[in-house]
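Exam prep: given the inputs below (a chain plus iron/sulfur cluster), describe the expected output before reading on.
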Amino acid sequence: MKKRWYDYLWIVSLLYLLLGFFNILFTWLGLLCFFLPLIISVATGTKGYCNRYCGRGQLFGVLGGRFGLSRKKDIPGWMKHKAFRYGFLIFFLVMFLLMLWNTYLVFAGAQDLQQVVTLLWTFRLPWHWAYHGTLFHLGAAQFAFGFYGVMLTSTVLGLITMMLFKPRSWCVYCPMGTMTQLICKAKAGKQP
Ligand code: SF4
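Solution:
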C-alpha cells in the first residue's frame, strides 16, 4: 500500500523524545499530542488521530513489528477491562494535575525550579543538562520538565507493553485513547 506522509509520524515522535534530551523546552510541542486527538474526536466523532496521526502508536508498531521487538502475545483480559482502563485514566489524570500543581507553585514563586524528570511517577532523574534558561517565566520550564516526565513515562510503559504483548498493546489502555473513545461514544449516544 502506498505510504502517506502521516505514516512517518513515528519519526516525529522519536525526534520529540530526543529533542527533550537536549532542550527541555521543546517538550511544549507535545501539547499537540494532547489537544489534537481530543479536537479530532470532538469534531468528527472518530478516533481519526489514533488511526492515522499518532506517531507514538506508530512507533510501537514499527519497533514491535518491523524490528521484531515484540513477543506478539495477546494482552491479558484484565488490561482490556473497563475497570483497568478507566482506573488508569483516572490515575493518569490525577498525576497530570499534580504536575500542573507543581508548575503553578513555581509560577507563584512558592517553589524553586526542579530540573528533574520523574519517570513512572516515582524516579526523579536529573535532567539539568537539557535546560539552558528561558525568556519566559521559570514556571514554563517547570511545565516542560513535568510534561516530559509524562511523555517519557507513557513511552516507557508503551515499550514494556509492546515487548511483552502485541506491538500496539499500549493503545488498549492509553489514557488518550480511552478519552477519545469516551468522546466518540458520547457523540454516538452510546453508554461508555
Ligand atoms: S491509543 Fe494512544 S498511543 Fe495509541 S494511537 Fe491512540 S493516542 Fe496514540
